[in-house]
Amino acid sequence: MKGIISTAIAIAVGLVVLAGYFIETPLLVNLRRLLLDWAVILAAVALFVGLANLVKVHSARVRDRQKGGFYSVVLVLCLLATLLAGLALRPEHPVMAAVFNAVQFPVEASLMALLTVSLVYASVRLLRRRRNLLSVIFLVTAVIILLGTAPLPFGEIPILGDLLRPFFTQVLAAAGARGILIGVALGSLATGLRILFGADRPYGSR
Amino acid sequence: MAEIACPTCGKTNPDGVAACQFCGTSFQPAPGGAAIHPGEKPVKKATAEFEGVRPKPSDDDLIRPGDPPVKKKTSELEQALPSWLKNLRGHPDQPPEPAPDEPPAPAPAGEAERVEFPDWLAGLEDDKTRVEEEQVPDWLANLRGRMQEEGEVPPAASPPDTPAAPAVDDLPREEMPGWLSRLGDGEAVLKDAVARPAIHPDENARPLPRENTSPTGAGTDQPVPEARLPGEEPDWLSRLQPEADYLPLETAGEALMPGGGLAGTPTARPGEEIPDWLAAAAGVAAAEGSPASPGGPAGVTPALIAGGEESPARTDSSLPLESPDWLSTIKPEQAPAPGPAAETGDGQVDGSLEPAQLPTWVQAMRPVESVVAAAPLGESEELPAEEQGPLAGLRGVLPAAPGMGAFRKPPAYSIKLQASEDQARNAAQLERLVAGEGQRSELPEPSLLGPARILRWVVALLLLLAVLLPVASGMQVAPDLSGYPPEMVAARNVVQDPALVPVNAPVLIAFDYEPALAGELEAAAAPLIDNLLFTGARLALVSTIPSGPALAERFMLETQSFHQYTGGEEYVNLGYLAGGPAGILDFAIDPPAAAPVTPGGADAWSLPPLAGVRELGDFTLLIIVTDSADTGRAWIEQASSHLQGRPVLMVISAQAEPMLRPYYESGQVQGLVTGLAGGKAYEQSIQRPGLGTAYWTAFSAGLFISVLIILAGGIWSLAGEPGSRKPYRVTEKP
Amino acid sequence: MNWTTLAGLGLVGLSAGLMLFLAALRRKEPPVFRRIAAFSRLGHAIGRAVEDGSRLHVSLGSGGLTTPQSASALAGLTVLRRLADLTSAGDKPPVASSGDGAVAILSQDMLQVSYQDATAGGFYDATAGRLAGLTPFSYAAGTIPIMRDEHVSANVLIGNFGVEAGLLADTAERKGSFTLSATDNLPAQAVLYAGAQDPLIGEELYAAGAYVNAGPFHAASLAVQDILRWLAILAILAGALLKMVGLL
User: Fold this and answer.
1) A201 — phi, psi (to 5°)?
2) ipTM value
């Protein structure tokens, strides 16, 4: 019974929002906006549910003395401290800004730097992992783009920066990206229709 | 020659015989009706019809379990004897002519010593008186007389009332019975008999052939040949092979006829005892002498089982009335040389008998020794010889029929498990796997100094050196840009156009990038915003990602400190717009409703920076700073229709350029600043060095080192072995 | 209602009709797809995970349900449900990580229903579906310990990932575990092509449901996408031609 109700609600809401985009009558538009607002609110609430789940997972790890339990302790404490400080001091408070600038910003920036090393390492091993023509083309294109992005310490390479790089980025890459985006859009359309038909029930219904 | 298959044993018999030669089953139709044919419905008959078949046993005759055995005289069983057996005991009438294929009449026994017959033959003694009373044929009487005259039979040993049997040759032909006259053909008959395979008596042990005799026994009317005393036995009979393992059934029965003496001396099979009566009879035959045959007892060779040897014809008067064909073919001149004489009671040795011609059916039942001792068997030598059992040495004794293969001892199978080496090895491995199932095995830790780890460190070290050295030393090695991207120039022109962006105009800036890419986008957006702030623009900062407001504050504090913009005075932070594109659309439709307050909780639309702004179109410029093509596209798609023709500029990451550049080329975006290079170019164009200039040398060196590493690794990968470390070596199915 | 709105409505209607028709048709005839090696290897990896008692990790990305990237998240949830059914006989249940709260809740629902269908409801762990982080890189930072410390032998990265997916692929390679990655983000596809073992390029992400036999509608969706793709190609070529001749 629960599955039937949730499926019916999902199909009805989806049809209303879809119709509200195409048929701009005040009723449908207002209903669409109302439902979207509800969705945003639910997403925010779901964020808190996710946070609760996060705390539960790491608490269980601490309780069971699993590997990495110390880091789980740090995570839970920091989460609670930041949450309480933000609720008390509000996000624009200098303390909150300092926490963001001192913790989150450098951590994510460091991860990005780490990603740079990983990408260079992966590029080095690409031909050992997957030796084919596409991999060779991939690496050659990456080299051309890198060399054409900025002048080299010893000077610019004329053809690379003025001709090849613009051609690769503005023609080849753009065309390929456009085609992939069209395909992604069609896939998104098909996925949405499966939800509207009730064929896909990601809300836990059998 | 037509043959009849016996319905009982299935063996073939010559056509015309009355009963089966092997099992004695009568071929005559059952009494009381016609013969029964296959497929016919059974006809119910009254059992009284069969009353004449055998005497109805009286109550006294019935044997009940637990009854003690009752000794009976064999004479009481006389009526159960077949007629031929009775006939062999002596009959005045001339025996009928036997048919060519008809089994000959029971072989007459030669004169034999009077022996004490066993109990079951005791009836024969009783019949002796009747025999004596019957008329003895003249020829038989003549034979007896001749023998007595010649002294072949000791007078004392012969019964007083036993007529001497004349010799065969002495008998006038017209007086001799037909069967006796044919004794001259004994050679051929004997050879034929030898060629036939003999049959083991035990396997074919069948009761004596039953004949359709009357309750009184038709055979009883026949004179019973009287027992012959030693010396009275014909020569041919005394030459019968003494060491036959067995005798053919009929001949065995014939040999045991009262008065007929023994056809030969049987040899006991291993483990068996020869009956006394049989041995005594054999001893008589051996005493009378007979040519020894190979393997047989010395001096006694039964004529009918001789292995190709011709037994001497005997012309004793004790021959039965119905003598077999083989007997008729025996000639006195064919008698072999006498062998060593066997000790007998009377010491007689007979060596003048000719080997008899055995009929085929008799030859088929000869024992082993007679076959082995015979002359070359001819065609039987080609057949395989039996190696075991009582038929050992005989060739072709058993037909090659299904189910009659060679007997061999069944192989002994060990109860122990027979496993090959491979099986034992696999079983041991399985045992180890099962035993190790519950054991915890730690996965091997990758070595700290593995080649992959070393390579990572080398790459990281090179990149760090390439980036940190220029920043730390402050050296500016990389040359400036020789040209400016047109999209960057267009963006600059929009900002510097007073018609598009007047002084102190409200400008909306969307900070939609992640903190991880803040380094690039801050360097790219800083010169443009810096250029904008020179016009005194009022800024409204908004973001569709949760960390956007914080990044916006950081951007204003870190990069635009020159202009000393203060939040709430010169710019307003509208905070986070939830819902993604839906939130953008809501904001585009009604900005105050979508973002009513600042993150601090103040009313944003009452603050001085947003004075007079109530719609999206009230903003003179929209600047989108994003690292994601999706976000930039969402802003363009959702907000551009509500901007009322206001220009849109984008500051994007280099990774999003291919997807967002078409919006610039289509005119939906009026300017584009792409990545660190775009920021450097903007700084260079307005001649205000900033983050771009500071990062330029490090950026260039890092790019160059990266290219070198990638090229070196690619060449090394092409030159080396592929797939040095595959996490999962999964073979693909074709 | 302008022509773009009409065109959009017509496109939606055409797609819906084709999908219904093809779904009814596919019920009778089994679909035939081109072979994608990544899904073949996925089957092997799942089998190994069940056999050796290791765990399957499904990462759904950081896309939210209220964004255009929700389609990739929904595709990932479908694959999660199917893989959970396949690994229900294993010793350890699969674990699902995501960067959005709503997607994390749905992943928990999927795992719970899968275990209930396998009559193994007692083995369901509510922490099997987790929120790993709220920003892309924090999500990657929260997912890496799952891949490294929870005895994971196969990773399925299917959803909306950014360039941070390169960190996940690198972790999987260090661990020696199988990785199948699919995202609708173009820069992430480039990163995963270089760093992952079996990347799916383009809209192969939306074909995952059909390749894991999630149902006839998934096969029909692939056919609808193919038909619409050809229509788009024809429309682009026609528009380019008309533009060249000056009619547009």
Assistant:
1) -125, 80
2) 0.90
C-alpha span between B690 and B702 (Å, rounded): 19
Phi, psi angle pair for A98, to nearest 5°: -65, -40
Tokens of B466: 């390439």
The verdict on residue C235 lying in a domain is no
- What chains are in contact with B, requiring at least 3 Cβ pairs below 8 Å? A, C
B502 or B128: which leads in pLDDT: B502
Instruction: Indicate the pTM of the whole model.
Output: 0.63
Q: Which residues contact A180 (CB under 8 A, 6 or more apart)?
A: C186, C189, C201, C202, C203
User: Widest CA span of chain B, in angstroms?
Assistant: 179
Q: Are B91 and B218 in contact (CB under 8 A)?
A: no
Spell out which residues of chain A touch residue B555, defining contact as CB-CB under 8 Å: none
Total structural domains within chain A? 1
The token duo for A5 is 């109700």
**Closest-approach residue (CA) in chain A for C190:** A138
Cα–chain center distance at B653: 72
pLDDT tens digits, residue range B701-711? 999 999 999 99
pLDDT above 60: residue B32: no
Contact C187 B446 (CB under 8 A): no
Choose among A192, B588, A168, B661: nearest CA to C68: A192
Per-residue pLDDT tens over the stretch C17-50: 999 998 888 766 667 788 888 998 999 999 888 8
Evaluate whether A68 touches C145 at the Cβ level (below 8 Å).
Answer: yes
Provide mean pLDDT across the span A80-91.
90
Residue A148 lies in a domain: yes
Residue C188 domain-assigned (yes or no): yes
Give domain status of residue A199, yes or no: no
Interface test with B, best of C2, C5, C163 (most B CBs within 10 A): C163
Tell whether C136 is covered by a domain.
Answer: yes
Taking a contact as any Cβ pair under 8 Å apart, which residues of chain B between 625 and 654 contact chain A? 654
CATH of the domain at C83: 3.40.50
B324-338 per-position pLDDT tens digit = 566 555 555 544 444
C131 and A187 in contact by Cβ < 8 A?
Answer: no
Q: Is residue A56 part of a domain?
A: no
Residue C185 located in a structural domain: yes
Q: Which of residues 443-462 of B touch A (CB under 8 A)?
A: 455-456, 459-460
**Tokens linked to B469:** 């050295």
**Residue B515 to residue C135, Cβ atoms within 8 A:** yes
Domain count, chain C: 1
| Domain-embedded: residue A131 | yes
Q: Report the pLDDT value the prediction gives residue C213, as an integer from 0 to 100.
A: 82
Which domain does A120 fall in, by range? 104-192
**Would you call B630 and C41 a contact, using CB atoms and an 8 Å cutoff?**
no
| C39 C-beta neighbours (distance < 10 Å), count | 18
Looking at residue B176, what is its pLDDT?
Answer: 53
Q: pLDDT tens-digit profile of B527-555?
A: 999 999 999 999 999 999 999 999 999 99
| A115 min Cα distance to partner chain B (Å) | 10
How many beta carbons lie within 10 A of that of residue B1, not counting itself? 7
- Read off the tokens for B686: 């307005």
pLDDT digits (tens, 9 = 90+) for C144-176: 999 998 889 999 999 999 999 999 999 999 888
Nearest residue of chain C to residue A49 (CA atoms): C101
